[in-house]
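A student in our group prepared the protein record below, which I am reviewing. I have pasted the whole thing underneath without changing anything:
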Amino acid sequence: MLADRDYRAVFEASPDAMLVVDSDGVIRDLNPQALSMFGWSREEVEGSGVERLVPAGVRSRHEQHRRHYSEAPRPRPMGQGLELQALRQDGTTFPVEISLSPGKLASGPEHVICTIRDLTGWNRTRRLSRMKAMAAENERKRISRELHDEFLQFLVAFKIRGKLLVDETHREERERAWAVIADEILDAIRGVKRLIRGRRSPKLEQQGLVSALATLFRDVRKVHGVTIHTSLSLNWAADELNPVTVLALYRIVQAAVANAATHARVSEAAVTLRSADGVIVAEIRDEGCGFELPDPGAVPDDAYVGLAGMRERAELVGGSLTVQTSPGKGTTVRAAVPMVGPDGDPW
């Protein structure tokens, strides 16, 4: 049988935060993980009401639930409870899951052991999985539309023209029909190349980051009528970067410029790339309509998948991404990524 000190050791060593709360909702004990999670000292929180750890807006409702639970306490395992919000000492809130275990401790009165798990990381992973699924579905739809509207129609027309060509007896008409087919084949080849460029950049692979960006900016002006003013002060660094870092930078700039061209309602935007102190900073700025940034805890909808994708690309290469915007105030996207050589070593 375990001695009291052994039970205490288990309590202290638990990977989850644990509180011991009496029937009046007073915190009688808590383990180091709980202190770390909520940011209080033991002296500050021990002996205070458990509602202190609950956001002010839901404290009265939480108190009602707690009293109702105390009338008929029962075990509530982790995974079967509600996802709730908890309050840190610094005033920030975070999602938690709580299991409850009522029981009678050695001290006599009834208590409830509350096991608390921070779901911040889990929610972030879940949101990222949803965004990836949404992005994959959107890409599938795009490819499906292009295959149906362009290539399927071409194949049908090619089949018809091929039959007509076989049946044509006049030489001049056969040559004319073949010329039409050759033009359509050339159009289809160009269409395939456009589809491929939607997934990768041959220019990036062949000529490097600066040249690929120049091509991108020319295409944006040609297609959208938006002029991109550039300042690319990378010197030799761009040609010596790890290919993964180069691709991340290119895709971030590509997505930010596309957003400015299609959503900001502007005729020009500015892109700055510079390297300093082992970091490359890319800044994409427009003076357009701006938008309301989503709440960090909200599940992003289609309108914000691009932002999440840019941030993910930056973080995957050890960098960061910030967005400054508000309605009517323009938008600035700034990515900072470490300069990593082809061998993966930082500079």
Observations:
- The chain has ten helices and ten strands.
- The chain has three domains: 4-118, 123-199, 206-341.
- Confidence is low (pLDDT under 50) at residues 297-302.
- The beta strands are 17-22, 27-30, 83-87, 93-104, 110-118, 227-233, 268-276, 279-286, 320-325, 331-338.
